[in-house]
Design goal:
Helix content: 25-40%
Shape: elongated
Radius of gyration: 46 Å
Length: 1049
C-alpha cells in the first residue's frame, strides 16, 4: 500500500492545483483571518529556524510575520503531507526564507533558494511540495519568481516515469528521490522494474515492492517468480513479508541507504531482510557495483560497494575484510579508504588520522579502492588482515625496532632504531622521540609533562561573562578595580560586537566592556584578545574572525543548530543558551569543517586542524622549525622556549658572548695591555730576582712576580673570550650558547680567570703587609737570604697559589656538584627539555610523570637517573641520558666568569658570599696598609727634611703618596661598586644579570692593566722613551706649529 500512497501524493501535488480553480481550492482550506493590529509576535524557534511567530485568536492556525517587514503569512496544519500558505509572499524575501521549516526545507543550499525550495503564488494560493519542487519549477508559471526560467534548461532529464532530475544525479551512487529511480538504470543494468501500474502510467517499482505480496503492475510482473527451490538460485527472507524469496538480477547489488534503514525510515532499495543483506549484495552482475572480490563460503565471488561497512555485525567475505571499517568523527569508512589522499569524510578525518603519519616506503595495491599503488600503513603490518592484493603486508619480513611491548615495525631497514619514551598509562605504551611533545596526546600525561618542562605559560584568556552571555568585561575593566584604572590612567567604555556586523535576525549584539583607548594586545589571549582586536582597540592587531558561520559550515558539530537569515540574503546557524539567548559566537576554521569557541582563538594552541585559529593573531611567536607557539612577550627574554632557539636567536635579539662593538673593542684593548704590560714585569722580576740578596727584596720581587702572573692570566682570559666571540663563534654563538656554557673550555677559562684575579689580590694583600713591615722596621738592616728563609718564602707563595686554585677548582669538582651545578642540558632528541633545565624544572617533570615525588631536594645523580628511567634501554641503541652536559659554576653566562651574582635560592650562595667577604677583607688590608705606609713615610720624610732641608725627599714622598692614592682608589672603584651590585642583586633589589659582561670584561680586569704601572716602574721606563719621541715629533710637526700660531694670533 505504501507505493500506492506515494503515487497518490504525486498525483495530488502535481495535478490538483492545476485542475481546480484557485478560489475553489482555497475554499477547502481553513478560513484565515485578516492580519490585524494586536497580534503578539515574538522571535521563536520554529522547526529549526528563527521566525516571527504570532499568536492570534484562532487556535488552529500559526501566523508568521515576515522578517524585517510588516507583512504576514499563514501556515495551515490540517494536512500533514503538504504545507499550504495563504496571504502575500514576503516581498523582502527573494531567497524564500519562508520555505525553511520542517517538511519544506530539505537541504540548505545558501544559494538562490536558501532551503532548496521556493513558494509559488498563483492567484493567492502559495504552494510547495517536498517531492514536486523541481517539477513545479518547470511546469508552473509563478507570478512571484523568475527562478523557473533559470532552472529549466538542458541539465534536466526526464526519467521513464516522467520525473525530472538533473543529469548529474543519475547513477551517482546516491538516491535523489524517494524511489531511487535516478539509480534504477546504470551501466546497462536495471535495478527494480518498470511496468504499467493501476494508474495506467509507466511506473518504477523499486526492489522493496517486488515480491511483497501486493500487485502494483497491471500484468502482475512485480509478483512473478517469487517462489522456487532451485539449488542454483540464491534465496533470502523478504524485508516486507519475511517469506523466502529468490534474489533476481534486478534485485541484486542495489544501492543501499544505510542511514535511513537504521533510523527506522525504511529503504526502498532493500529487498532482503537486514540479516540476509549479504545474499542481496554479492555475486553482482554489474562490474561498476563491485567493490571487492573475495572468498565467500570457500568460493570466490564479488561483493557490492553497498555492503562495505554496511554494519559491524554483517560481513560476506570469509576473512571479513569487507567489514574492516573505522569510525572517525562520526564518519564510518573502510580502512582501505583511509590515508589515500582522498577526503572521504566531511571533516577529512580519514586523511588526518595519526595512522597516516606512519607508513612504509614500500607500496602496494590495496584490496579495496581504485587508487593504485599506495604506501602501507605501519599499523597494518602483520596484523592478521591481508590488506594488499599481493599479501606483502602479511608475508614479508618487515624490519622492527625495540623489544618486548615496544617492538614496532618501521618504514624501512634504513631507519636508525632509537629508544622511546615510556608511557605510564595508555596505549601503545610508548612514544617515539620524533613524535614526543608534538601536541598530540599519545599516552597518558604526555602533554602535561611537556608543558611543565617547557616553561608553563600562565595566560590571561577569559573574560567575565554576565547578562546571560551578552556582556563581556575584560579583566582590568571589572568592578572593584577602579583604583587600578586610575593608576593606569585607563578608562573603560562599552562597545558592541557581532560577527558578521550585519542584520542577523534574532541575534543580539554582545556588549564588551574594555579600555577606552587603544592598547598593546601582546599579553592578551582567547576572548580577551578577540574582543579587544575585533572592536578596534588593539594597536597593530587585526580581528582574527574572517569566515562567517554560515549554515553549511561545521556539519558534524552543533546538532541542535538553529538557522536564521542575515540581511535577508543568506543563512547562518546559531545556538541557544541561557534558555532564551541565540548567539553565533563561534570561530570557523578555514577548512569550514570545524568550529571552535571564541575562548580557544589566539590562545597559543592549535584547535583547528588547519591551524587557522592562530593564523591571524599578532600575540604570539611561532618557532621556526616547529609549530610551537609562545607568547610574543617571551621573545628575547633571555630564556629559550623554542627547540631551535629562534625565540632568542633572531634579528631582534641574537645573542653574542660580548654585546656591542665597544665591549668587544675594550676586551681586545684591555687584554692586550694587560698581557704586554705584565709580560714586561715578569721578565724584569725574573731578571732582578737573581740579583736580590736581602729577604725583603726577594719577597717584594716574588710577590710582584705573582701579581704580574695573576694579571697576565686575567689578560689572557680577556684575549680568549674575545677570540671565541669574534673569531670562532661570531654570529653563530646564539645557537651554540648551551653547548658553550656546558663545555669544558668554558670551565677551564673560568678557572684560569678566577686563579688570576684571586692570586693577584692575595699577592697584593701580602705585598702591602710586607711593605708596612718594611716601613715599620726601616731602621733595621735587612737580613740576607738564606736557604731556610727562601724555602719559607716559597712556601708562603705556594700557599697563595694553592688557595687561589682551590677557590677556582672547588666549584667544578664532581663531589660538590649538587651545590654548584646550576642546570643540565639533555640531548635535544629527547624533546622534553628545551635548552638547559634547573633542578626545579626537572623535579616538576618527574612529579608530572610519576604522579608523586618526595618534597626533599634530590641530588643531580638521582634526578638524571629518574629522567633516564622515563626512556627505554632497548638492545644496543644509543642511550640519550648516559651523557648529560652540566651547566657548572662558570656556565651561568657566556663570559664563563666566577658566579658572583647569586640569588637567595642559589645553593652556592654561601660560597660566593664567603669569597666576596675574603676579597673585601683583602681590599681593607690593602687600603689600611697603604694608608699606614703613607703616614709613616710622611713622618719619616718630615723628620729628614726638617734636619737636612732635603727637597728631594719631599718630592719622593709626594710621588709615593700619589701612588698610594691611586692604588687605594683603583681598588675601591673596582671592588666596592662590584660588591655593592652583588648585594643588591642577591637581595633582588635589582637584576644585574645584563651587567655581568661589563664587570667581567672591563671593571674587574682594569686592575690588571693598572697594577704593572703601580707596583713597578719597568713599564713606564719602557714606554717613556717612545712616548717622549712621539711627543717631540708631534710638537715639531708643521701641522702642530700652524695650529699653535693660529691659536696665538
Amino acid at each position: 500500500m505504501l507505493i500506492l500512497l506515494c503515487l497518490a501524493i504525486d498525483i495530488v501535488t502535481t495535478i490538483l492545483p492545476s485542475i481546480l480553480p484557485n478560489s475553489q481550492y482555497a475554499a477547502n482550506l481553513t478560513t484565515i483571518p485578516t492580519p490585524f493590529e494586536g497580534y503578539t509576535c515574538e522571535i521563536k524557534e520554529n522547526n529549526g529556524f528563527l521566525k516571527y511567530v504570532c499568536h492570534p485568536s484562532a487556535p488552529d492556525l500559526t501566523i508568521y510575520k515576515c522578517v524585517y517587514s510588516e507583512e504576514y503569512y499563514v501556515h495551515d496544519p490540517e494536512t500533514e503531507s503538504y504545507r499550504y500558505f495563504k496571504g502575500g509572499v514576503c516581498s523582502n524575501d527573494p531567497h524564500f526564507y519562508q520555505a525553511c521549516d520542517e517538511g519544506i526545507g530539505g537541504a540548505i543550499t545558501n544559494s538562490e533558494l536558501l532551503c532548496q525550495y521556493f513558494i509559488c503564488e498563483t492567484g493567492g494560493l502559495i504552494s510547495t511540495s517536498r517531492e514536486m519542487a523541481r517539477r513545479k519549477l518547470c511546469e508552473f508559471i509563478c507570478t512571484n519568481t523568475e527562478l523557473n526560467k533559470e532552472n529549466c534548461n538542458e541539465d534536466l532529464v526526464t526519467l521513464p516515469s516522467g520525473l525530472p532530475v538533473r543529469s548529474t544525479e543519475i547513477c551517482d551512487g546516491k538516491c535523489d528521490n524517494i524511489m531511487c529511480e535516478d539509480e534504477s538504470t546504470c551501466n546497462g543494468f536495471t535495478y527494480g522494474i518498470y511496468c504499467i501500474s493501476w494508474t495506467h502510467t509507466l511506473t518504477y517499482i523499486p526492489p522493496r515492492f517486488i515480491c511483497d505480496g501486493v500487485e502494483v503492475c497491471q500484468d502482475g510482473e512485480d509478483e512473478e517468480n517469487c517462489r522456487g527451490t532451485d539449488d542454483k538460485t540464491t534465496f533470502c527472507k523478504h524485508i516486507v513479508t519475511g517469506e523466502i524469496v529468490p534474489v533476481h538480477n534486478y534485485t541484486t547489488c542495489t544501492e543501499v541507504d544505510r542511514s535511513s534503514y537504521r533510523n527506522g525510515a525504511g529503504d526502498f532499495r532493500l529487498y532482503c531482510e537486514f540479516s540476509d543483506t549479504t545474499q542481496q549484495q554479492t555475486n553482482c552482475s554489474d562490474p561498476s557495483r563491485v567493490e571487492i572480490t573475495c572468498e565467500i563460503n570457500g568460493f570466490y565471488s564479488t561483493v557490492s560497494r553497498s555492503l562495505i561497512c554496511f554494519d559491524e555485525s554483517i560481513s560476506a567475505c570469509d576473512n571479513k575484510i569487507d567489514s574492516k571499517c573505522m569510525t572517525t568523527s562520526g564518519c564510518r569508512i573502510h580502512r582501505h579508504y583511509m590515508c589515500d589522499n582522498v577526503n572521504d569524510c566531511v571533516d577529512k578525518a580519514d586523511e588526518r588520522s595519526l595512522a597516516c603519519m606512519s607508513t612504509t616506503k614500500t607500496t602496494c595495491k590495496r584490496l579495496l579502492g581504485r587508487k593504485g599503488e599506495l604506501p602501507i600503513l605501519i599499523s597494518w603490518l602483520r596484523d592478521g588482515v591481508r590488506d594488499c592484493v599481493s599479501g606483502v603486508d602479511e608475508t614479508r619480513d618487515w624490519p622492527t625496532c625495540g623489544t618486548g611491548k615496544r617492538t614496532r615495525y618501521v618504514s624501512s631497514k634504513e631507519v636508525k632504531c632509537r629508544n622511546v619514551f615510556i608511557c605510564r598509562t595508555g596505549d601503545p605504551g610508548y612514544v617515539e622521540l620524533e613524535k614526543l611533545c608534538d601536541g598530540i596526546e599519545t599516552c597518558g600525561n604526555e602533554n602535561k609533562i611537556c608543558s611543565v618542562s617547557n616553561r608553563p605559560q600562565s595566560l590571561s584568556i577569559s573574560v567575565r561573562t554576565t547578562d546571560n552571555g551578552l556582556t563581556k568585561s575584560l579583566s582590568h575593566c571589572l568592578p572593584g578595580l577602579n583604583n587600578l584604572d586610575l593608576l593606569k590612567n585607563i578608562s573603560c567604555v562599552t562597545k558592541q560586537h557581532l560577527f558578521p556586523d550585519e542584520n542577523i535576525f534574532g541575534v543580539t549584539k554582545t556588549s564588551v566592556i574594555l579600555p577606552d583607548e587603544r592598547v598593546i594586545c601582546d599579553h592578551m589571549f582567547g576572548e580577551q584578545y578577540l574582543y579587544t582586536s575585533c572592536t578596534g582597540r588593539c594597536i597593530s592587531a587585526t580581528c582574527p574572525l574572517t569566515t562567517v558561520p554560515r549554515w553549511e559550515v561545521c556539519p558534524n558539530q552543533y546538532p541542535n543548530r538553529i538557522g536564521t537569515i542575515v540581511n535577508n540574503e543568506y543563512l547562518i546557524f546559531v545556538t541557544k543558551s541561557y534558555g532564551t539567548v541565540y548567539s553565533n559566537m563561534y570561530f570557523v576554521c578555514d577548512d569550514q569543517i570545524e568550529c571552535i569557541d571564541y575562548s580557544k582563538v589566539c590562545d597559543l594552541v592549535y584547535n583547528c586542524n588547519d591551524k587557522s585559529d592562530e593564523a591571524n593573531c599578532s600575540n604570539h611567536f611561532k618557532c621556526n622549525s616547529s609549530n610551537k607557539l609562545i607568547p610574543k612577550t617571551k621573545i628575547c627574554d633571555g630564556h629559550i622556549d623554542c627547540f631551535d632557539f629562534s625565540d632568542e636567536c633572531n634579528e631582534q635579539c641574537s645573542q653574542e658572548i660580548l654585546k656591542g662593538y665597544w665591549l668587544k673593542g675594550l676586551s681586545w684593548l684591555i687584554g692586550l695591555l694587560a698581557v704586554v704590560a705584565n709580560l714586561v714585569i715578569i721578565v724584569k722580576c725574573l731578571t732582578v730576582l737573581r740579583c736580590s740578596k736581602t729577604t725583603v727584596a726577594v719577597i717584594n720581587r716574588l710577590l710582584i712576580l705573582v701579581i704580574a702572573l695573576g694579571d697576565f692570566l686575567v689578560g689572557s682570559y680577556l684575549f680568549i673570550i674575545a677570540g671565541f666571540d669574534g673569531i670562532i663563534f661570531k654570529k653563530s654563538y646564539c645557537h651554540q650558547q648551551t653547548t658553550w656554557i656546558t663545555s669544558l673550555e668554558c670551565s677551564v677559562i673560568g678557572v684560569l680567570s678566577t686563579i688570576g684575579s684571586q692570586i693577584s689580590l692575595f699577592a697584593m694583600t701580602g705585598l702591602s703587609i710586607v711593605r708596612v713591615h718594611g716601613i715599620w722596621n726601616s731602621m733595621r738592616i735587612p737580613g740576607e737570604v738564606t736557604a731556610v728563609k727562601f724555602l719559607k718564602i716559597i712556601a708562603a707563595i705556594t700557599f697563595l697559589v694553592f688557595s687561589s686554585a682551590a677557590i677556582a677548582v672547588f666549584p667544578i669538582m664532581q663531589l660538590f656538584e649538587d651545590f654548584f651545578v646550576n642546570g643540565v642540558k639533555f640531548s635535544e632528541e629527547l624533546k622534553i627539555f628545551v635548552g638547559t633545565s634547573n633542578k626545579a624544572t626537572i623535579q616538576a617533570v618527574i612529579q608530572a610523570y610519576y604522579g608523586r615525588s618526595s618534597d626533599a631536594r634530590l641530588d643531580w645523580k638521582t634526578l638524571i637517573k629518574m629522567v633516564g628511567n622515563m626512556f627505554s634501554r632497548d638492545l644496543d641503541y644509543k642511550y640519550l641520558t648516559e651523557k648529560v652536559d652540566k651547566v657548572d659554576f662558570y656556565g651561568n653566562d657566556g663570559v664563563c666568569l666566577f658566579k658572583y651574582f647569586v640569588q637567595n635560592d642559589d645553593p652556592q650562595k654561601m660560597f660566593v658570599w664567603g669569597i666576596l667577604t675574603i676579597n673585601f677583607v683583602c681590599f681593607l688590608f690593602i687600603s689600611m696598609s697603604y694608608l699606614l705606609i703613607g703616614v709613616l713615610s710622611r713622618r719619616s720624610s718630615d723628620s729628614l727634611a726638617s734636619s737636612h732641608n732635603n727637597r728631594q725627599i719631599e718630592q719622593r714622598n709626594k710621588r709615593m703618596n700619589q701612588r698610594i692614592a691611586i692604588i687605594i682608589a683603583t681598588d675601591f672603584l673596582c671592588w666596592i661598586p662590584f660588591i655593592s651590585i652583588c648585594i643588591l642583586h642577591s637581595l633582588e633589589v635589582i637584576n644585574a644579570t645584563s651587567w655581568y659582561s661589563i664587570f667581567s670584561m672591563v671593571i674587574l680586569p682594569i686592575n690588571s692593566v693598572i697594577n704593572p704601572l703601580l707596583y713597578d716602574d719597568a713599564v713606564t721606563k719602557v714606554m717613556k722613551a717612545p712616548t717622549q719621541a712621539l711627543l717631540t715629533r708631534v710638537c715639531n710637526s708643521d701641522i702642530f706649529r700652524r695650529v699653535r700660531s693660529r691659536s696665538s694670533n
